[in-house]
Amino acid sequence: MSPIRKKDVERFILSDDYKPMVLKELYKKFRAKTREERRKVREVVKKLEKEGRIFRDSRGRYRKLGEDLKVGTIEFTRSGYVAFVITDEFEEIAVPVEDTKYAMHKDRVVVEIAGTWRGLPRGRVVKVLERGLTRVVGVFDHKGTFGFVVPDDPKIAYDFYVAPENIDGAKPNQKVIAEILKYPSPGKNPEAKVVKVLGDLDDPSIDLPSVIVKHDLPEPGEFPEEVIREANSIPAKVRKKDLVGRKDLRDKVIVTIDGEDAKDFDDAISVEKLSNGNYLLGVHIADVSHYVKEGSALDQEAFKRGTSVYLIDTVIPMLPFRLSNGICSLVEGKDRLTMSVEMEIDRDGRVVRYDVYPSVIKSKKRMIYERVNEFLEDPSSMKEYEPFKDLIYNAVELAEILREARRKRGAILDIESDEVKVILDENGQVVDIVPRKRGIAEKLIEEFMIRANETVAEIFDHAGLPFMYRVHEEPDPETIFQLRNYLEAMGIRANFPQNIHPGMLQKLLEKVKDHPLRSSVERLLVRSMKRAMYSAVNIGHFGLASYAYTHFTSPIRRYPDLVVHRLLKLYLEQNGYFTPEQIEKFSKVLPKIAKHCSRRERVADEAEWDLVAMKKVEYIARHIGEVFDVVVTNITKFGLFVEIPEKSISGLVHISTLDDYYYYDETRNMLIGKRKGRVFRLGDVLKVKVMRADKIRGEIDFVLVEEDEE
């Protein structure tokens, strides 16, 4: 009898003839009698299971995944009514919470498709393949001799039982980190043991470690030993041999412009006016790929992290500080290796000529956004920027031309981020929350980076070679319908055609420019649009109205940019050509990198939002009883959601605290008083008093204050 070949076993299991079998039946099919023969069959089964191509059902049979069975990561919502399974292909499947079968947030699961839910496939979990969480962070609560950990994350639907021997000295109302010992099962709560007591709930220093554990992030500044060893072996200065094949731009007037607290400088610019009236824009980006080699320990860790995470005053960097703040950072007065994109741009904002090449620069000045803005208002106030006035004025002129060109092609320009800056004291306590203002300097750097990113993406799009794009899909019609209803409730008429164009949404933003609800409209607009993400397939960027876009300008803090640099270098070295082997390799690997980096970006965003939300509640908790001016941003049957605009702090005025019996008019989105006839609408400006701030739940309650009560 011929020996068992693994590829025959695999071919059979994946064939159309295969019917679900238990392991014994597979042994019988292949006449696997010896220990060695059975091991071969098991290895194939385990491999296919790991790849997510088959799974073992509750009766021990191995089933193939097909049209009705999908594998993905389950993500619960805060409301707890429904969860969503995101497949590896980024397909979304809705799973009602009663069909989640003891799965927990972030688990890898198999779902069976059974109908639809609001236009999405509806599924039920048939198996948990892999648990996504190993630790939870939450509040410890004592019940007699044993305890419970109530997770911070509302997406985790269970409290965790803690046996007496696993309490580790935790006291009620302390924040703890717990290791999961047992996962939920029929009739049983999950179990955990306390591994670290972070501190009391009102201690602001516990917020950062709470967020780090909740989102499973690495500790700030900590890297595996091998990564640190590799980083330490990289020279701290540019050497003579590093300059081979590079254009020397060290005498050119090149500067960096960043925020005051920035430490890693990815990008530098040069701007000249040419005799023909055009502009020569140079965008010079740190050449991280020269130091971080593909497949190295540094590279593997950078891929795993995907991005740097900015948590108020703490950075969890993608690369060790020796690189991110050292040799890769475009520090003033130091030789640094770069990749340069040089573009000649005409008065209409068109790139008429470009060149891309490896270079070496020496930044002449580390400029700061706020100071550049001050200089533009009053040049005499910033004498140190005087020698660079030509560059600054040329940059302002060119940025305005590029911005106008983007406006004409229909890009969405005017979304003013509702980002705030949280100011902490040395103990980590919130001193103040102030809006982040974007001046001319911030906008001009944004314009130059967008143009450089487009230029690099267009090179690969025209060449038809594998590439890593930054894509942004058109919004769903249903979310646009919600936006229209919201605007109508505000008294703003908006006609939305069948095919939405970003230019139409830009006109809408111009319409609400001076409306008190402008930031709410912007937020809803952002929510109505899909997330931008990384993709190996170019479908364009809706928000920027770009037919090809990428991320090339921040390789110190984003892994996709590092990948783009490697592809660009290969393209230049091989004169615009990839070998068939390279094309095959990149076609396989780039979609995987894109999916992973999109996920890591999402985790980083959620961690940043979480920490800021905690600090907002902490800030308002110190202002209980104080009165604030607020804007009504949403109306529900249980009350008014309001926002303190200059702080971006939101909370609820519950209907039970109002001075009348109010009923909710759903069609007009209003609350109407039965006796007095008072009406609350979107956009109303009210005075409210802070009544309650719950940091654990992230809830803030206000009550209405009438003018004569103040």
UniProtKB/TrEMBL annotation:
GO terms for cellular component: cytosol. InterPro entries: CSD, CSD2, NA-bd_OB-fold, RNase_B_OB_dom, RNase_II/R, RNase_II/R_CS, RNase_II/RNase_R, RNase_R. One of its GO terms (molecular function) is exoribonuclease II activity. Its EC number is 3.1.13.1. It is found in: Cytoplasm. Gene3D superfamilies: Nucleic acid-binding proteins. It comes from the Bacteria. Residues 625-705 form the S1 motif domain. Its main location: cytoplasm. It is an enzyme of class 3 (hydrolase). It holds the Pfam family CSD2. The keyword Cell membrane does not apply. Keywords: Cytoplasm, Exonuclease, Hydrolase, Nuclease, RNA-binding. It catalyses: Exonucleolytic cleavage in the 3'- to 5'-direction to yield nucleoside 5'-phosphates. GO terms for biological process: mRNA catabolic process. Belongs to the RNR ribonuclease family. RNase R subfamily. 3'-5' exoribonuclease that releases 5'-nucleoside monophosphates and is involved in maturation of structured RNAs. This is Ribonuclease R. It comes from Thermotoga petrophila (strain ATCC BAA-489 / DSM 13996 / JCM 10882 / RKU-10). The gene is rnr.
